[in-house]
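Hey, resending since the last one bounced:
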Amino acid sequence: MIRAAAYILRFIRNARYKHERKQGSLTIDELRNSTILLARLSQIDSFPQEYNLLSNKSSVRVITMFHYCEIFGQAYMQGTMSTAVNSFRKCGIWPYNQEVD
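The structure tokens again:
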């Protein structure tokens, strides 16, 4: 299927750019481009609502490396804290009581 898509893309390109026609075996770039195209079409078919949301530029929020690190840090701390709390619970020393010496 990837090779068939690559030949179709080559045919379209050769029809558009008659002075730069490609012949012979498929190149790695042609196979890569056809793989990307097929993956994109599969995603559009499988996830139409998500695709429509992402293709609407006004609804997409850009996430910078700072935002990513902040979100990852919050998720890590929640996981770490919940693990610690569950460990204390399992040992029987949760909830913490300041009255006990």
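Residues 2-59 form one domain.

Sorry for the duplicate.
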